[in-house]
Amino acid sequence: MRIRRLFIANRGEIAVRIIRSCRRLGIDTVLGASEADLDSTPARLADLCVCVGPAVAAKSYLDVGAVVAAARTAGVDALHPGYGFLAENAALARACEDAGIVFVGPTPTQLEAVGDKLAARRHAVDAGLPVVPGGPVASLAEARELAGRIGWPILIKAVGGGGGRGLKRLDNPANLGAQLELAISEAQGAFGDARVYLERYVPSGRHVEVQLLGDGHEVIHLGDRDCSVQRRYQKLIEEGPAPDLPAGLRARMADAAVAYGRRLAYRGAGTVEFLVDTAGNAFYFLEMNARIQVEHPVTEAITGVDLVERQIAIAEGHPLRLRQDEIQVSGHAIECRINAEDVAKGFAPGPGRISAAQFPAGAGIRVDTHVEAGSRVPPFYDSLVAKVIVHAHDRAQALTRMSGALANCRIAGVPVNTPLHVEILSDPEFRRGGVDTQYLARRLAAWDGARAVAAEH
After folding, report:
1. Would residue 4 show up in a list of annotated catalytic residues for this protein?
2. Does residue 84 carry a pLDDT above 90?
3. What is the CATH number for 92?
4. Does residue 156 sit in the same domain as residue 281?
């Protein structure tokens, strides 16, 4: 089929990103916006903007009924969910099918298979992927027995969690009972699913992910990305290819990701995330994100493949038309997420009106954003305001290019984390490459300590 009119069930920079690809493809766009976003940049860029509900996400962007009703009223052929909100919601995908609307993404069954973390682990095992030792627990006795077998420290994870939510680390058995009870209660309250499971905590791990594309028959990978610079499990800087990764390990991870996609007969764009044990030169399956990723521009830069266009083509029923041997990774790309937050105040969100916005431009520089001078940053949603992406011949040149790009990135009116990015880029440990997921926590503590000492003198 040919998609002629597409509903975008999202907001912010990803909405602008989808509109940009649709324009190239000659597809009309309808933006579903909350009351808080009716005067946003995506609302002005879309061919039509319709309101899906109040500012609060639970009554707009997260309301399956409201989203599908708006899409039906707008007379669209397809719906693109972007990332976040309902992007991996099987109920939305099924409701679209029932309404005769093409869902630009995986099938409802595939979303259910990877959305349930225990089911995703089982699929990984069946596909031959290594998983972190662990398993489900329903009582303190089970938790004690399993923790004793897999070894301390451990993580308690909510089956329905993600992005660092519903996750607790324990270094010893002292508070296991209380923390398990709290984890179960929080999982029920936050996700409507009280199930939790344990995993052994890998202290020196890197977060490396492999980008997949599948058409329901064939699955290929488009290289990897390193997302280890995180704060409380929220990614801050991503780059690709993952630096300082042995070639053999990289190849095994790519093969494992493709095996996982083939196990599901996967359709659409998806990312298989791995934990790389830097001490043991091993990797473990973490989860699969069955959607476009925030950091997808990194892959687009090093492969030249427009992932949103490929999503739409697959949704139209076209085969991949790409062979694995046609995917060539060229150069190095880095993405910095610019968030409206006050780093000095514990990364507190900084909503408000942007009084001035200047973004870098030039060869090898890309900026994905939805803000400009006069734009409002609402207090209801994620604080991401822009992504600065650079591409260069190698990592050293990419680091230099990113430093220059950030020097020409100025946003006024709301606090932003750009100075933190500058600090990270100049840090010798980061510049060497291959940092683990605890890197930023260590550096923040060290920098805070150094500033405190300087203030005393």
Report:
1. no
2. yes
3. 3.40.50.20
4. no
